[in-house]
Amino acid sequence: MRTYKLTAYEKNGELITEETFTAENDSQAKEQGQALLEEKSLLEKTHRLASPAGKLLLFHS
Known about the structure:
Blueprint: E1 2-9, E2 15-23, H1 26-39, E3 46-50, E4 56-60
Antiparallel strand pairs: 1-2, 1-3, 3-4
InterPro entries: YhzD
Pfam families: YhzD
Protein name: YhzD-like protein
C-alpha cells in the first residue's frame, strides 16, 4: 500500500482539509480522492491529490 495526500483550499489560500490515505495504486487513489472530494462537497474548491512520488493525480484551481 502507498500513502497519498489530498488537500483542498479556499481561493484565499486557507486550508480546508488535508487528508492522507492508502491505496494499492495511483488509479485506486484517484478514485478514492474523487470520492472524498464529492463526499465533502469540495469538487469546485482548489484541490490536489499527490502520490508518494509527488505526481499530481487530481488538480483543480
